[in-house]
Amino acid sequence: MEESEMGLVEGKHALVIGVANKMSLAWAIARAMHAQGAHVVLGCVESARKRVEKLGREIGCDQVFACDVRKDDEIEGLFQRTGDFFHGRLDILVHSIAYANLNYLGGEFIGVTREAWNEALEISAYSFVACMRAARELMRAAEGASAMALTFAGGREVVPGYNIMGIAKAALECSVRYLAYDLGPEKIRVNAISPGPVRTISALAVAGFETGLRTMEEQAPLLRNVLVEEVGHTAVFLASSLSSAITGCILPVDAGAHILSRPSIARKEHKR
């Protein structure tokens, strides 16, 4: 292959965790990585395995590993299998995992229970830390590896209805910074991508999501919403040598919406 024809991540080994369906941001990222020359392995929950295996065949990926990130032994097993397949080296890790009880997405945040709080933070934030710990030796062997997580503006400011997921994303973003500090001496970069509202199946469960899409089209500097392909392209950039001095960054991919002060949001009066 001519050098000019090589992809940005040609020959790199990538694990993308969190693929659920064809609308997933994780799937858009996996496709983009494959298109730019990476060898991709997919991670998912057991209930999605058959669906993800079917998707994987579209990019020539026949390695789909199921993992419950609430269990340390399953995380360790995931990276053991990944390391075996990739001969002890992992160049790229993409964490696109988030979960919260739907009963606490919408309405007042103050009603969140201890159980719902712990569950959301364990799955959505702590799992990234646990995955990085399990991946550390594999990524150190790459001598220039890149890890990234997926976040959202609701972790930095109030997005009505996002509630407990906002707390989880705040914890995730802070974890990105501390991981970047810990792992920088080992040439492992750690960043997060913060897309604007994207029409995924999980996003549709958030109260007020459609309003958010309309607001983006009306007020974002680019006067449009974000495409999943654009999130994938950003992930490739962060995984490539073009971003070799970028770590600990929360990178917005939101048509410029992050530069604006937020409009006032009409809401119903609280009932006392």
Structural features:
single chain, Rossmann fold, seven-stranded parallel β-sheet, 7 helices, 7 strands, 13% strand
Question: Gist?
Answer:
The protein has 272 residues and is an alpha/beta fold. The chain has helices spanning 25-35, 49-56, 72-85, 114-140, 164-183, 209-219, 228-239; strands spanning 13-17, 39-44, 64-66, 92-95, 145-150, 188-195, 250-253.
Description:
- The protein has one domain (8-253): Rossmann fold.
- The protein starts with 12 loop residues before the first strand and ends in a 19-residue tail after the last strand.
- 46% of the residues are buried.
- Helix 4 links the parallel strand 4 and strand 5 (145-150).
- Helices cover 38% and strands 13% of the residues.
- The protein has helices at 25-35, 49-56, 72-85, 114-140, 164-183, 209-219, 228-239; strands at residues 13-17, 39-44, 64-66, 92-95, 145-150, 188-195, 250-253.
Extract low-pLDDT stretches: none
Strand content is: 5-15%
Order of helices and strands: EHEHEHEHEHEHHE
What would CATH call the homologous superfamily? NAD(P)-binding Rossmann-like Domain
Coarse structural class: alpha/beta
Helix share, percent: 25-40%
Radius of gyration: 18 Å
